[in-house]
Amino acid sequence: MNWELMWDSLPKLLGGVPLTLQLTGLSLAVGVLIAAVAAAARLSDNLLFRSAAWSYVFIFRGTPLLVQIFLIYYGLGQFDAVRQSFLWPVLREAYWCAVLALALNTGAYASEIFRGAVLSVPHGQVEAARACGMSRWLAFRRIVAPQALRQALPAYGNEVVLMVKASSLASTVTLLEITGVARRLISQTYAVFEIFIVAGLIYLALNTLAAVAVRWCEKRLATA
Amino acid sequence: MKKTLAAALLAAAALSLPLAFAGPAAAKDWKTVRIATEGAYMPWNGADASGKLIGFEIDLAAELCKKAGVTCEIKAQDWDGIIPGLQQGKYDAIMAGMSITDERRKLIEFSKPYAADPAIFATLNGSPLLAQKTGARIDLSDAASPSKAAFEALEKALKGKSVGVQVSTIHQTMMEKHLPGVSLRTYDKTDSMALDLASGRIDAMLSDRSVIADLQKAADGKNIALFGPGFVGGVLGEGMGVGLRKTDPDLKALFDKAIAAANADGTTSKLAEKWFGYDVAAK
Predict the structure, then answer these.
(1) Please, which residues have CB within 8 angstroms of residue B277's CB and are 6 or more apart in sequence?
(2) Which residues contact B113 (CB under 8 A, 6 or more apart)?
(3) Taking CB atoms and an 8 Å cutoff, what residues of chain A touch B167?
(4) Spatial distance between the Cα atoms of A178 and B208, rounded to a whole number of angstroms
C-alpha cells in the first residue's frame, strides 16, 4: 500500500465529484418525471398506455445499464439518419448520452416503486373520499399521494444510492467522473488497488450523505 | 483457548502468505509460460468471430515458445489491467503491442524489442486536418530535431478539436507531453475510438500506423485517412517488447534469445509480412 499516492490522488479524484453529482442529479430529476408518467400510464384504464408503459419498464429493467449506455452512445451514432437529425448535437455529447441512459433506467425502476406505493393505499379510502364528493384528482392529491409518497420514500432512497453507483458506468463512454478519473490515474500509476480504494471511499461518503438526506425526509414526512 | 487457536491460525496464514507469493520469484525451470495479450489491437493481437485469439503476436508467441522450448498458454486480458495482472502473477509475460518505455520500466522488465512501428494521426476524408503533410518521421528522443516546429503546427491545426487515444498508451503520454493544449478523449479499446471517429465525436485519433492501416481495411474504415508526420522514440519508447516481472531474469534471458533467433532466421519478418504487409521486425 502506497499511502502517499493515495493521499495525492484524493484531490484529483475529488475533481470528478461534480460530474458524478451532475450525472446523478440530472438523471434522477428527469427519471422522476419519466417514472411519474410511466406509473400513471400503468395504472390507467387505457390498454394502449398500459401496454406501452409495461413494455418500457420490461425492456429497461430487463437489460443491463451498460448495454443501454453502449446502445445509446455507440449504437445510435452509427446511423446516418441519427447523425443528420436535430438530435445529433445532443447525442454527439457523451454527457447527454449518459444522462439519457441513466434517466431511462432509473425511470423504469422508480415507476414500479411509485406504482406499488399508489397501490398500497387501501382502495376503501379512495371510495370513502369519492363518496364525500371529492373528484378523482382531489382524492388522489389529498388521500393517495401523501400516503404513497411516505410509502415510496425508503425504496426510492435506495434507488438514489443505486444511481450514484450506476453513474460510474459513464466512465465507459469517455466521461471523467470519479471512476473515469480513477481509471486515468491508474493508467498513469498502475496503482489499481490504492486508487480504487480512494474512489470507493468517495462513493461511500456520497452515499452516506444521500442516505442521511433520505432518512431526514422520511422523518419529516412521518411527523407531518 | 478458542481465541488463541484462532490467533495462531491467523498468524500462520499471515506467515504463509508471503511464502506463497514468493513462488514465482525463485529461479525455476520454465516449462509452461502464461502469456497475456489484449485481443483487441489488430493486427498485433485480436480475436476472430469464434473468440479465438489471432494476430501477429499470437503467431510470434508460438514461434518464440517453440524456439525457447517451453509450452505457452496465451489468454486475453483487458489493456488497462494488463500490468497489474502481471505483477500479481496471473500470467508470466505480456505480448500486447506494448512499447518499451522508461515509465513502464519502473514497474516491469522488458525483453529486447521484437517489433517497431511509428505512431501517426488519423482523421476522416474531407477533414481540414489533412492539410498537414504526411511522410516525415520525427524522432522524439532527439532534442534538436524538428519536432518542436512540427508540434507547434499540429497544435495550431488541432486547436478546438478533440483527439482520441487508447487509455494508458504511449500515445496518451505523447499527447499529454507534447500537445497538452489539445482536448484529449481516452478510450478503453481502439475499436470504440474508431467508432467515435466515424461518427464525428472526435476529430482525430493517434495510434500505431499498423493499427490504423487495419482499421482502413474494414468496410466502414474506407473514410479514414492519415495526416501529419510519423513519430518514434522518446516517450514513444524503443519498440514493442515482451513485458516481464523484474523477478524473472531467467525468463527474460529465454525470450531475448528466442527473439534474436526469430529475427536472425527471418521468422519475425515473415510473420510481419503476413499480418501487416510490411516488415515491422526490430532490427
Answers:
(1) B213
(2) B100, B238, B239, B240, B241, B259, B282
(3) 183-184, 187
(4) 29
Angstrom distance (rounded) from CA B280 to CA B60: 12
Is B260 at the interface with chain A, CB within 8 A? no
Percent of chain A with pLDDT over 70: 99
Per residue in A21-59, pLDDT tens? 999 999 999 999 999 999 999 999 999 999 999 999 999
The SS3 call for residue A81 is helix
Please state at what angle helix A192-223 crosses helix A17-43, rounded to 10 degrees: 50
Q: Are B67 and B266 a contacting pair, CB within 8 Å?
A: no
- Percent of chain B with pLDDT strictly greater than 70: 88
Q: What is the pLDDT of residues A100-132, one digit of tens each?
A: 999 999 999 999 999 999 999 999 999 999 999
Of B18 and A153, which is predicted with more confidence?
A153
What's the mean per-residue pLDDT of chain A?
93
What string of DSSP letters covers A175-224?
--SHHHHHHHHHHHH--HHHHHHHHHHHHHHHHHHHHHHHHHHHHHHHH-
Residue appearing with cell numbers 427519471: A31
CA atoms within 13 A on the CB side of B166: 21
Asked whether the beta carbons of residue A74 and residue B107 sit closer than 8 angstroms, the reply is: no
Question: How far, rounded to the nearest angstrom, does the alpha carbon of residue B142 sit from its chain's CA centroid?
Answer: 22
- Across B67-76, b (16+ Cβ under 10 Å) vs e yields bbebebebeb
Cβ distance of B201 and A172 shorter than 8 Å? no
> Does A189 touch chain B if contact means CB atoms closer than 8 Å?
no
Q: How many CB atoms lie within 10 A of CB B203?
A: 21
pLDDT tens profile B208-261: 988 998 899 887 788 999 999 999 888 888 899 999 999 999 999 999 999 999
**If contacts are CB pairs under 8 Å, which of residues 153-212 in chain B contact chain A?**
167-168, 172, 185-188, 192, 195-196, 198-201
Position B245, amino acid? R
Instruction: Spell out which residues of chain B touch residue A89, defining contact as CB-CB under 8 Å.
Output: none
For chain A, say whether B75 makes contact (Cβ under 8 Å). Answer: no
The H or E element spanning position A61 is helix A47-62
Tens digits of residue pLDDT in A155-165: 999 999 999 99
- Give the distance, in angstroms, between the CA of residue B213 and the centroid of all CA atoms in the same chain: 16
**pLDDT (tens digit, 9 = 90+) per residue, A61-75?**
999 999 999 999 999
CA–CA separation, B198 and B124 (whole Å): 7
Helices marked H in chain B? 2-21, 56-68, 82-87, 102-105, 147-157, 170-178, 190-198, 209-217, 249-264, 267-276
Q: How many CB atoms are located within 10 Å of the residue A158 CB?
A: 15
In angstroms, the CA A160 to CA A32 distance is 11
